[in-house]
Each structure stands twice: as structure tokens, then as C-alpha cells.
């Protein structure tokens, strides 16, 4: 759409070609609740004459039904599309709108102001080049203004328009505007913005939206739309090194093999040398194939299929890079993380990390610090809550190709996914590789696990006993070890209480500490299995995620989950240590089964209820399982 209509004599082809050559600006509107973000976008479209007659008629009708501005048109309704948004007068989801003027094309994202929807705001900011941060002139800089500004900075946006809105409600006071601008610039001094342009405006009245208004004769700068039409925002993605995450290996027949994906950055032409990661195999581009024919070059955001001069192994998830400037590879890196879930981040818990081209199990090994969005100071902490930002170390199950986020937003970003719910729980920006994996190598030993186990005449394994306190885990584990010892087997028991006197004596009983408790024990058990030992682990281990993590540390068949499924009421009746009684009285916090959850195993290899069978019989069943499955071979 354009502001100027075409006459029949206009050359339509030339007009469309000129329109195609216009630059594109992606920007977001953000800020606190009720600062007028949706109204601003609606007014921008309306005053620019970028709405059709039927859209205006629908807007007038919607205003009569849902409007919040009396007799005036409620421009926010143009972008507040959800019923819940119209009922509450707020933005919940991210609303995207495309429009163009004679000078430029735009995609604008209207993002929510409510703190609980900060994750939606981050989604809109992740692809934007510029942020319009609105401030209510009556309220000044608020916490959510600071939070959004920090996230905007973190996500790589370097240009900000400070839109001081609702100036009509403060009589277009120059002193009020100057005070707000000074406060914001003082806060944003260390955020790394290249430009901050402050504009006084009234979105509802249309002041300083598409042209300078007489209500603010003291404002020497531009109105909003002319500024957006002329601002130069960033180095083109085409100037960055070539990156193509492979989404699909295209094999329609035996005579064609291509690698399909969307160009993330850079330009590639036939004959260019490329390198494929992680294999580091090199070749040259033979052709660039599309449905409309072969191309002379491919640029960012183009979906293409590359064919290569050499037959090399490439799979979905690999990245094709410029031969002279490949991405880095690492399985450990440091990154900023925005936490987006109600359940807090637990360092040591295994999540799924999704980059532009692959999904990999990953763990936050250390939360270095949290960031106070009001002061930008670094704070210590063990976990991240909803909407908090931290700087973390990550460990991945396998290396991933990446660029630092500051160099390439498309190959330096990732999301974290909860393995149990498949919900997105965090968004991250990679800062740098820790490079530890490249400096520390596994030492091959002549005496290996098989040799150690053979000398002991057994197959090593982990017997992982889980269940509530008082269920009988330790009792049964102790009996099993006695029977195995009588059979001449080599064993060791890691008991929850005993380990907390040594290896884990620095840990408490918060969820974060419980996760770390199990992580350390899982790693210890793994080493014992490598020594050829049958190791018995007796821990409540309440979370499925950590039990799965312990299972994945060892090889298939080396982890046997033993669920002691004694009911809670029976465990409370036993209450050998008096712990349940104290927990019920509130003297013990975070006690599993009372005020901390226990997640029941879904597919335990062995399930035993000691309220139905004696502990001795339970131990016999476990030993019989080991015999039947070849763990006690002579």
C-alpha cells in the first residue's frame, strides 16, 4: 500500500520495482501498561492514510462497542485483535502490522506492557531494528520501562525512540518532557544504544505523529514518521559472513542432491567456497536452485537449495558457512538468559536448547549473576524467576555451531525448552565460548570399563532407589547390597543422608539444591560404573528430569530405576526420624510430599511397595532381576 494513488498512465511495472527496492525497517513499540502503544500504531496508520474505507468503517463500529475514548475513535482497536485485549483495554499478544510510505516499508510489532507478558515483548524485539519506547508523561520512567529497555538492549537493538506520550494531559509541558528525557538517558547510559531520540507526542490527538505539531513549538526535532523514514539502523545482514542452516536434504531423485534452508546472513554465489559444520568438510557451490529457476546469488531471508561440487555428508541441523569465515563450534558457552516461565530456572537440570538449526540437551552449569533491571547492577543468586535476566554458563550434550549474538543475532540466539512440558522457558543470547571442551580431552586408558567388570565377573550398573522419605529405600538398598556381597559381587552404596555429610554438605533443600544434589551423585555413580562396580543409589530424587539426567549419563541398560512406591500415609505413620511431624508443623521447609512435590516415575524397571511386601522380599526380587538380566554373570 502507498500513500499516493496511481493514475492509469503510471507505469505499474516501474512503480512496483521501485516499491520492491525500498528499504525495510522493523520496529517495535514497548513500554509500561497503558502508555498508548496500540493507540500510537493505530494513529500512525490512520494519519498516514494507510487504511481502506472499510477498515475505517469497521474501526468506527468497533469503537462504539469496545472503545475507551468516549466519542473519539479508539485507534488501539486496530491492533488489539484478541477479545480479551478489547475487553481489558490491554495488549496481550504481539500484533504485527505491515505498511509502507513513499520512502520506506515497515513492519511494526505492538508488544504487551504487562510484566507477565514480558516474554511476548522479547519475541517481538528479537527481529526488530529499532524500538519505540513509550512513556506516559504523567508517570515518567517506570520499572517496566527499564525492563523493556534492558531487554531491547540485550536483544541487540541499538536505536531507540523515546516517545513521551499523553503530553496533552500535562498541557504539553516542556519541563515535564525535559525531566523525563533526562531521567531516561541517565538510566540508559550503560545500555549501549547508538542513538536515543526523544519526541513529545499525543497518540490520541495525533500530535507529532506524521508531522510536527504547533502544540510543541519548543520541540526542535522531527515528528515520529519522518524520523522512522530516514533513520539508518544497522549494517546489512548481507555484509556479514554467509550462513545457511540446513533445514532439509532435498533428494527428489537419484540424480539430484541439494541442501535447503533460508539464508541467515551473507551472500553466496556459484563457485564460492563453503565449509559445513560440524564436520568441517569443504566444497564449492555448484548452483543455487529455486522453484523459479537457478539464481546468480542468494541473499539473507531467501529460501534456496544449494548444490555442491563434491559429495559430502550434510544433514538437517548442519550449517553451511563461508569458507573463509566459518562459525565457531563449542559445547560450553556463556550467555545472557531471559527466563520466561512461572517455574524457576534450576541450574543442573537438563533442558532442551534450540538454535536456528538444531535441538540439543543442555544444562545451566552455573548462574554467574542476575541483573537488576532498575539499577543494572549484578546480583548473586542460585536461580532465575519469571522475567529475570541472568548471565549463565551452559554445557551442551554435543557441540553446536554459533556466532556471538553481538555479531549475528540469527546464529547467536537460542531458546530453552522444558523437557517434560515442551514449553519454552527461556530465551538466550550467546556471548562467548568457554573453550574448555577444546582444552580438556578424554584420556583413553588401556584398562577400561569392560576389563574392570570382567575381572569382577559382573555387569556394572546403577540401581537407583527413589521414593518418599520413610518408604524403605535405604533399608531395601542395604539388604540388596548384603545379598550381592554374599554372592561375591563388588558394590557400593551412595545414600542420601550419608552423601550430605561429605560430597554435598554445602547444599540445602531448595529445588535448585536438590537438582545439584542429584547431578553430583549421578556423576559419581557414572564413575563407579566405569570402575566396573554395581552402585546402589538411595535418594528421594523427587524430579523426573534429574532422574532422566542420571540415566542418560550411563549407557543403555546400565541404569535400573527402583521405585519404592510406599504411599505417603504409610511413610508418615512410620516417620522414623520425626521429619513428617516437623514438616506438618512448619518447622521444616521444602519437605518432599508435604510442601515440595514428588514426581512419580513413569516407567521404572522395578516397582515395589514395602507396605505390601516385607523389605527382605523386595531385596530378593531386585537380586533376582539382576540375575535374570545378566548383571551377575559368572
- Fourth-level CATH superfamily of the largest domain: P-loop containing nucleotide triphosphate hydrolases
For the record, the count of structural domains works out to: 4
Shape: globular
How are the strands of the biggest sheet laid out side by side? Answer: 7-13-10-11-12-9-8
How can the largest sheet be summarized? 7 strands, antiparallel
User: Into which percent range does the helicity of residues fall?
Assistant: 25-40%
Strand percentage lies at 25-35%
Structural class: alpha/beta
Output the CATH topology of the largest domain.
Answer: Rossmann fold
Label the CATH architecture of the largest domain: 3-Layer(aba) Sandwich
Which regions contain 5 or more consecutive residues with pLDDT less than 50?
1-6, 80-93
- As a whole number of angstroms, the C-alpha radius of gyration is 31 Å
CATH class of the largest domain: Alpha Beta
Distance between the termini: 81 Å
Mean pLDDT: 84
Tally of extended strands?
A: 25
Total of helices: 17
Amino acid at each position: 500500500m502507498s500513500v499516493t494513488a496511481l493514475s492509469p498512465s503510471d507505469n505499474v511495472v516501474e512503480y512496483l520495482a521501485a516499491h520492491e527496492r525500498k528499504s525495510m525497517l522493523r520496529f517495535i513499540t514497548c513500554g509500561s501498561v497503558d502508555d498508548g502503544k496500540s493507540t500510537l500504531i493505530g494513529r500512525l496508520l490512520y494519519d498516514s492514510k494507510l487504511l481502506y474505507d472499510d477498515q475505517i468503517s469497521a474501526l468506527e463500529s468497533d469503537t462504539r462497542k469496545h472503545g475507551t475514548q468516549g466519542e473519539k475513535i479508539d485507534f488501539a482497536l486496530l491492533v488489539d485483535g484478541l477479545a480479551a485485549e478489547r475487553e481489558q483495554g490491554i495488549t496481550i499478544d504481539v500484533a504485527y502490522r505491515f505498511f509502507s510510505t513513499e520512502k520506506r516499508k515497515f513492519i511494526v510489532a505492538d508488544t504487551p506492557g504487562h510484566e507477565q507478558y514480558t516474554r511476548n515483548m522479547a519475541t517481538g524485539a528479537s527481529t526488530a531494528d529499532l524500538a519505540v519506547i513509550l512513556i506516559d508523561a504523567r508517570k515518567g520512567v517506570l520499572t517496566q520501562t527499564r525492563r523493556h529497555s534492558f531487554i531491547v538492549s540485550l536483544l541487540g537493538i541499538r536505536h531507540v525512540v523515546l516517545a513521551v506520550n499523553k503530553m496533552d494531559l500535562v498541557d504539553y509541558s516542556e519541563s515535564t518532557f525535559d525531566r523525563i528525557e533526562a531521567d531516561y538517558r541517565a538510566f540508559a547510559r550503560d545500555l549501549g544504544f547508538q542513538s536515543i531520540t526523544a519526541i513529545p507526542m499525543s497518540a490520541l490527538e495525533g500530535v507529532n505523529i506524521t508531522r510536527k505539531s504547533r502544540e510543541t513549538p519548543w520541540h526542535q526535532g522531527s515528528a515520529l514518521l519522518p524520523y522512522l523514514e530516514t533513520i539508518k539502523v544497522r549494517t546489512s545482514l548481507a555484509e556479514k559472513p554467509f550462513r545457511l542452516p540446513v533445514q532439509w536434504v532435498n533428494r527428489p531423485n537419484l540424480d539430484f542432491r541439494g541442501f535447503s534452508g533460508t539464508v541467515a546472513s551473507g551472500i553466496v554465489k556459484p563457485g564460492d567456497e563453503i565449509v559445513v559444520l560440524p564436520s568441517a568438510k569443504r566444497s564449492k557451490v555448484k548452483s543455487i536452485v529455486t522453484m523459479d529457476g537457478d539464481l546468480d546469488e542468494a541473499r539473507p531471508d531467501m529460501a534456496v537449495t544449494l548444490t555442491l561440487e563434491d559429495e559430502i555428508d550434510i544433514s538437517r541441523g548442519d550449517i553451511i558457512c563461508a569458507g573463509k569465515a566459518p562459525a565457531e563450534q563449542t559445547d560450553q558457552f556463556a550467555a545472557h538468559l531471559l527466563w520466561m516461565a512461572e517455574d524457576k530456572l534450576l541450574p543442573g537440570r537438563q533442558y532442551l536448547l534450540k538454535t536456528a538449526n538444531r535441538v540439543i540437551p543442555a544444562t545451566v552449569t552455573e548462574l554467574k549473576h542476575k541483573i537488576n533491571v532498575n539499577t543494572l547492577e549484578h546480583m548473586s543468586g542460585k536461580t532465575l524467576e519469571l522475567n529475570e535476566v541472568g548471565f549463565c554458563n551452559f554445557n551442551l550434550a554435543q557441540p553446536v555451531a554459533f556466532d556471538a549474538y553481538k555479531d549475528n543475532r540469527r546464529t547467536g540466539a537460542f531458546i530453552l525448552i522444558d523437557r517434560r512440558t515442551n514449553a519454552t522457558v527461556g530465551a538466550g543470547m550467546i556471548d562467548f565460548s568457554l573453550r574448555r571442551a577444546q582444552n580438556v580431552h578424554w584420556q583413553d586408558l588401556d584398562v577400561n570399563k569392560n576389563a574392570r567388570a570382567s575381572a569382577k565377573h559382573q555387569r556394572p550398573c546403577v540401581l537407583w532407589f527413589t521414593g518418599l522419605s520413610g518408604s524403605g529405600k535405604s533399608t531395601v538398598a542395604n539388604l540388596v547390597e548384603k545379598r550381592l556381597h554374599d554372592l561375591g559381587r563388588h558394590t557400593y552404596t551412595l545414600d542420601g543422608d550419608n552423601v550430605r555429610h561429605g560430597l554435598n554438605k554445602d547444599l540445602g533443600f531448595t529445588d535448585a539444591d536438590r537438582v545439584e544434589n542429584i547431578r553430583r551423585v549421578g556423576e559419581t555413580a557414572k564413575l563407579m560404573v566405569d570402575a566396573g562396580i554395581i552402585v546402589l543409589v538411595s535418594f528421594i530424587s523427587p524430579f523426573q528430569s534429574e532422574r532422566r539426567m542420571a540415566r542418560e549419563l550411563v549407557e543403555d541398560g546400565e541404569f535400573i530405576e527402583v521405585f519404592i512406591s510406599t504411599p505417603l500415609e504409610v511413610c508418615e505413620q512410620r516417620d522414623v526420624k520425626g521429619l513428617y511431624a516437623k514438616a506438618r508443623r512448619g518447622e521444616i521447609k521444602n519437605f518432599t510430599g508435604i510442601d515440595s512435590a514428588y514426581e512419580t516415575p513413569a516407567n521404572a524397571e522395578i516397582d515395589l511397595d514395602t507396605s505390601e511386601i516385607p523389605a527382605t522380599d523386595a531385596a530378593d526380587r531386585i537380586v533376582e532381576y539382576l540375575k535374570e538380566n545378566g548383571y551377575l554373570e559368572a
